[in-house]
Amino acid sequence: MSQAKLAGKTDQAKIARSEEEWRSKLTPEQFYVTRKHGTERAFSHPYHQEKDAGTYRCVCCGTPLFSSDTKFDSGTGWPSFYAPANRGAVSQHDDRSFFMRRTEVRCAKCDAHLGHVFPDGPKPTGARYCINGVALQLDKMPSPTRAASNAKA
Ligand SMILES: [Zn+2]
């Protein structure tokens, strides 16, 4: 497999790295999904059934994107959330690839492709953010008992 043609295209992002920089920083699958708009296989990533509390960060730049508080089991095999961690965390883009009209979701900070958002989610938002597990890094919260002995502020 030759990958002779690497387009020297750079897009305007708040965190701008070259394709080579991303490639060296990420695993091949992370690179494929986040920088090449790929999609992991359904049920392939353990985050689709992750139940622990914490913050899901962008695997590329570490920005908090989703909270476990808004995670729900969509049955699709991808981690699903009904809202982003905060309003500005992700950006949305029209995606007309594959003869479908979908809304792509990216990390607002580094433009990493995360997944898509659909209007068939649960209350209170009705949105379903269908996100690739490899695009995320779960920052687990310490368990409440531990935090207590840790002089929690
Ligand atoms: Zn990012």
Overall description:
This protein is an alpha+beta fold and 153 residues long. It is built from 3 helices and 9 strands. The protein has helices spanning 19-25, 28-36, 144-149, and strands at 54-58, 64-67, 71-72, 80-81, 90-95, 102-107, 113-118, 128-131, 136-140. The strands form 2 sheets. The protein has a 6-stranded antiparallel sheet. A 3-stranded antiparallel sheet has the order 2-1-9, with no helix packed on it. β5 and β6 (102-107) form a beta hairpin. The longest helix has 9 residues, at 28-36. Residues 1-13 have low confidence and may be disordered.
Overview features:
153 residues; six-stranded antiparallel sheet; three-stranded antiparallel sheet; 3 helices; globular; disordered N terminus
